[in-house]
Design brief:
alpha/beta, seven-stranded parallel β-sheet, three-stranded mixed β-sheet, 11 helices
């Protein structure tokens, strides 16, 4: 499947979406049997990753009659209803309104918790770091208390590759046993420090309450539902290409990144939820490393817009060097692999957003 894009030429938006859901289902079909008749509490279910997990569970229920119940915590049910891909009643799931730091516990028994709340918002990190830190740490504390109260079988925490801080340039791929280089007096590290603190809370609850938790340290991922006008470079480049505009890189284009297509990310997350070892962290992302300039040229070449302008200004942001994971642990322990290459991921994302060849 990797880098084989010709079959996408005549695809449309809906076929991309359904094909992705079918792919997730096919890869996880046997795995899903472990949560048949289960009850999942999902925070962050209205975010980019959360909505894909929700759609995948809905698709699995529909195709295998798994009878998986999902309760989704959202800050505003009506806002989610407005932006949702389908009427929320169609899911057959329970949507409850509340703040992750103070929500009222829903009634009933739960077997699994997926704590995916708090997007990696560059705006929030820059302008309201106190709100971001409090939401991540206090929210995780609240969800952990809920998990202990409900005696769940498994707790999956969606963490971030940002917790490692600045990846040394000579380190081409960063592994889970590297403990990071964050400056705790630099407020632009708020998101990363909060995720670190949240992981520590998970470890504390595992020790104190014998909670079976696994942490997923997610690196760059993209695909349908990702807003193209936020701080993700590949999304910006795809947006420019769809609009037939030149891709402009404000910096020097040298920092290295990778990008895992969203359906692969979701597959790896379900493997981490169901088969991940207790009190273990797994990197989730692509280990295919490209410079920002290379990514821009791959996007422009793939989508047929060839102008890439590198302005060469001083780069800014929290990570000026590499942000590329080693995924050796998750491949070895959970037997996953990346099957969708970067170019195909770009095309699928572009088609979803209205690109025509």
């Amino acid at each position: 499947m990797k880098n084989e894009c010709s079959h996408l030429d005549s695809a449309d938006r809906e076929s991309i979406f359904l094909d992705d859901l079918q792919y997730i289902f096919d890869e996880c079909k046997d795995l899903f049997e472990d949560i048949r008749n289960g009850s999942i509490f999902l925070t962050g279910g209205t975010g980019f990753i959360g909505i894909w997990m929700l759609e995948a569970l809905f698709f699995a229920n529909k195709n295998s009659n798994l009878n998986i119940n999902v309760t989704v915590l959202t800050r505003d049910v009506e806002k989610f209803r407005e932006k949702c891909h389908r009427p929320i009643e169609d899911y057959g799931f329970n949507f409850i309104q509340g703040d992750v730091t103070s929500f009222i516990y829903p009634e009933g028994n739960f077997t699994h918790v997926i704590h995916a709340a708090t997007d990696a918002s560059a705006y929030l990190n820059e302008n309201h770091p106190d709100v971001m830190y409090r939401t991540i740490v206090m929210g995780t504390n609240r969800v952990l208390d809920f998990a202990v109260n409900k005696k769940v079988r498994k707790f999956l925490f969606l963490s971030s590759g940002a917790i490692y801080g600045q990846q040394p340039w000579e380190m081409t791929h960063i592994s889970e046993d590297w403990f990071g280089s964050l400056d705790c007096l630099e407020t632009r590290n708020t998101y990363a420090e909060a995720k670190r603190a949240a992981e520590m809370l998970c470890a504390i609850y595992a020790k104190k309450h014998e909670l079976n938790f696994t942490s997923a340290r997610i690196f760059s991922t993209f695909g349908p539902f990702l807003p193209l006008d936020t701080h993700f470079a590949v999304g910006n480049f795809i947006k420019n290409s769809i609009e037939k505009k030149a891709i402009t890189i404000n910096g020097n284009g040298l920092p290295h990144r990778s990008g895992l297509y969203i359906s692969e990310t979701i597959i790896w997350l379900f493997y981490t939820l169901i088969s991940g070892h207790a009190s273990v962290a797994y990197n989730i992302g692509s280990d295919e490393s490209f410079s920002i300039e290379e990514i821009a040229k791959k996007v422009s070449g793939t989508l047929g817009v060839n102008d890439v302008v590198v302005l060469g200004k001083k780069d800014s942001g929290w990570n000026l060097g590499r942000y590329v994971p080693s995924v050796a642990r998750i491949k070895k322990e959970l037997n996953v692999e990346q099957k969708i290459g970067f170019e195909e991921a770009v095309i699928r994302t572009a088609i979803w957003n209205g690109w025509k060849k």
